[in-house]
Amino acid sequence: MSSISPIELSIFQSTMHSIAEEMGAALRRTSFSPNIKERRDYSCAVFDRLGQVIAMGDHMPVHLGSMPMSVRAAVDALSLERGDIAILNDPYQGGTHLPDITMVMPVFDEARGGENERPIFYASTRAHHADVGGQYPGSMGLCSEIYQEGLRIPPIKIVRRGSVDRSVLEILLHNVRTPIERKGDLDAQIGACRVGELRLGEVVRKYQPTMIQRLSEELFEYSERLTRAELSKVPAGEFEAEDFLDDDGHGSGPVCIRVKLTIDPVAATASVDFSGTHAQIESGLNAVLAITYSAVYYVFRCLLPAHAPATAGVLRPVTLIAPKGTIVNARLPAPVAGGNVETSQRIVDVLLRALAKIVPDRVPAASSGTMTNLTIGGIDPRYHRPFAYYETTAGGAGARPDRDGVSGVHTHMTNSLNTPIEALEYAYPFRVVRYGYRLGSGGNGRFSGGDGLIRELELLTDAQVTVLADRQTIAPYGLQGGADGTPGRLSILHEGNEGKAQQLPGKCSVRAAKGDVIRVETPGGGGWGRAS
């Protein structure tokens, strides 16, 4: 059997990536909500017949390692036939948190047939929906169990042989606050999966299944070789670090995440051990295993060359140890809404802190370390129907060993954009009063951390306001003598209160009145190196 040439592999890799990108473009173009259309809070990917990721297009890093687990869960639970599309969001079956809904569609060889035929590919989309029911508008509040966080969907078929299952769709839409918006976004995900099916069908006709399997495995092995090449160049030893979430949202002290990296450059392997990390807690800051795996995947992917394909092969040389019942591998029925957005960031921070002891000239200081989640829900007086707004807010990136950090940017496990002021004011009963950099919030050093942002939203109706943010007391760390970044701050300016701000805790839900202004100040990044 002839070997696969580098050119053949490069063409296959490029094709798979472009298909995932086309799926993302279709999803964005046809989606209903600003959360997907403007912020691009979604991921699209192509998987082989075993559910291993071949390529990701537009994506959120927090989805990198977890999407394959959802695909595998759907494949194991269902007999997917031509034209079927599975839907799920269960964090305990490969999901991240309930607002992230995943769809999975099989792709077959149309030239063949038979009862026992297996798919050649799977096309998958995952999108963050601004509300999936539950106790709080936006489905991102602090809860004591997952059943309060929203609608939990096991792997089921939403499309059967090309036709939408209306009964399944109606059950979903009857359990959310914004059914029109949700239907629009679900339709967009279905359409994106069908774009993937169409384009992947062309690939099957071009290469045939046996060649596709060989090309996919070669791509996995290529990613694995790149990871092993990096591990073979770093020092041997055990390197430990710890970092903390501010609290659990219920008045506790700091919540510790501890890691030990064990590097064996001779075998070109690594072990990532989270033993000693805090036990799971009674609030939504818990992370499921899929989140922790994604964070580890992201950090090791950052060590690789920019051209390295993000495939299932990246973490083959890496062993992950995440004890069950801890905040990095929670057990059902632990709530997990904030594990995806906040704890994931802290897992990255602690991994980078450990890596800074191994390759200090390659690791930046801590970035803002929080997605600073803001959800607002109520009745839109313009249309007399419920609305649910959700957005993360960018902060400062940590300074790097050779340059300053970037200001006002989403970092690490989030890769979304901001909602433009015009789109936000059009879609929701808000007025943007202020939006700009939080000057001086980045830590000083030889290179300074990036500044956070200040954003003020005036409410044009009474609403429930929920915030889920960290790094409000424990600052983003500097490295190599650089200063820490400035922690974040959240507050409400009540109408008629002469501009005096009521400071909010980082994790809370409050009633606010028409005319109140919500002020969000995000953390700056840490500095790198001592200032001269």
Features:
532 residues, alpha+beta, five-stranded antiparallel sheet, 27% helix, globular
Please provide a written account of the structure.
- The protein is α+β, with helices and mostly antiparallel strands and 532 residues long.
- 27% of the residues lie in helices and 23% in strands.
- It has helices at residues 6-30, 34-37, 67-77, 166-173, 179-207, 209-231, 289-303, 337-355, 421-427, and strands at 42-48, 53-56, 85-88, 100-107, 121-128, 156-160, 163-164, 237-245, 255-264, 269-273, 318-321, 373-380, 385-391, 430-438, 452-459, 463-468, 489-493, 501-504, 507-512, 517-521.
- β12 and β13 (385-391) form a beta hairpin.
- α1 (6-30) packs antiparallel against α5 and α7 (289-303) runs parallel beside α8.
- The mean pLDDT is 95.
Name the strands of the widest sheet in spatial order.
Answer: 2-1-5-4-3-6-7
* Computed structural class: alpha+beta
Kindly report how far apart the N and C termini lie: 61 Å
Write down the overall mean pLDDT: 95
Q: Report the sheet-strand fraction.
A: 15-25%
What Rg do the Cα atoms give? 23 Å
- How are helices and strands ordered from N to C? HHEEHEEEEEHHHEEEHEHEEHEEEEEEE
Which residues form runs of ≥5 with pLDDT under 50?
none
Kindly state the percentage of residues in helix: 25-40%
Summary?
The chain is built from 9 helices and 20 strands. It has 532 residues and is an alpha+beta fold. Helix 7 links the parallel strand 10 and strand 11 (318-321).
Write the layout of secondary structure elements.
Blueprint: H1 6-30, H2 34-37, E1 42-48, E2 53-56, H3 67-77, E3 85-88, E4 100-107, E5 121-128, E6 156-160, E7 163-164, H4 166-173, H5 179-207, H6 209-231, E8 237-245, E9 255-264, E10 269-273, H7 289-303, E11 318-321, H8 337-355, E12 373-380, E13 385-391, H9 421-427, E14 430-438, E15 452-459, E16 463-468, E17 489-493, E18 501-504, E19 507-512, E20 517-521
Parallel strand pairs: 10-11
Antiparallel strand pairs: 1-2, 1-5, 3-4, 3-6, 4-5, 6-7, 8-9, 9-10, 12-13, 12-16, 14-15, 15-20, 16-19, 17-18, 17-20
Helix pairs in contact: 1-5, 1-6, 7-8
